[in-house]
Amino acid sequence: MTKVSHGAHSLYLYGNIDGSWELRQSKPNELHALRDNLNNSEPLEDLFNMINSFPTVRETFLASETYRICHLEEKAKLCGPVIEKNYEPESEDEALSDPVVCSVCDGHYHTSAFWICCDICNQWYHGKCVKITAKKANRIKHYECPECFNDRIGHN
């Protein structure tokens, strides 16, 4: 709505729904109602609070079943083949002890994948899950997993 001065009368340019425009004389009640609503910030504050009370799209997605499934599938892809329910130990020693499980993806030990053990917490990890190769591991004297590293520097 735009005000146009035309002699002694004030005319307003109205945009119609169909996209056309027309000049009209404004009704005094409409102007006062518009002006009064512009000065009242309470409805805007209420709207702001209502909008902010809802979870964000990110929070909703992270809490969803879709994210959980995608996240687990992605971790499984990083770690290569994971043997789950039909897991069979490869040796007698392994059969007597608890199975070795990757602390990131919960995949069982498999000889075809590179594994590394944290020297602090003694947890085992697929090299791909902690982004370390066998070549890098050979140059490391003391391996610290990401969780122990974050605990040491004070991050969670």
Automatic annotation (TrEMBL):
Recorded GO CC terms: nucleus
GO molecular function: histone binding; transcription cis-regulatory region binding; transcription coregulator activity; zinc ion binding
GO BP terms in the entry: chromatin organization; regulation of DNA-templated transcription
Main location: nucleus
Gene3D superfamilies assigned to the protein according to its UniProt record, in alphabetical order: Zinc/RING finger domain, C3HC4 (zinc finger)
Location(s) in or outside the cell: Nucleus
Domain PHD-type: 99-151
UniProt superkingdom: Eukaryota
InterPro entries, alphabetized: Alfin, Zinc_finger_PHD-type_CS, Znf_FYVE_PHD, Znf_PHD, Znf_PHD-finger, Znf_RING/FYVE/PHD
Keyword Transcription attributed: yes
UniProt KW Nucleus keyword: yes
Pfam families: PHD (PF00628)
PROSITE patterns (UniProt xref): ZF_PHD_1 (PS01359), ZF_PHD_2 (PS50016)
SMART domains, A to Z: PHD (SM00249)
UniProt keyword annotations, A-Z: Chromatin regulator, Metal-binding, Nucleus, Transcription, Transcription regulation, Zinc, Zinc-finger
Cited PANTHER family: CPG BINDING PROTEIN, PHD FINGER PROTEIN ALFIN-LIKE
Chain's role: Histone-binding component that specifically recognizes H3 tails trimethylated on 'Lys-4' (H3K4me3), which mark transcription start sites of virtually all active genes.
Domain notes: The PHD-type zinc finger mediates the binding to H3K4me3.
Protein family (similarity comment): Belongs to the Alfin family.
Assembly and binders: Interacts with H3K4me3 and to a lesser extent with H3K4me2.
Protein name, as recorded: PHD finger protein ALFIN-LIKE
Organism this protein belongs to: Miscanthus lutarioriparius
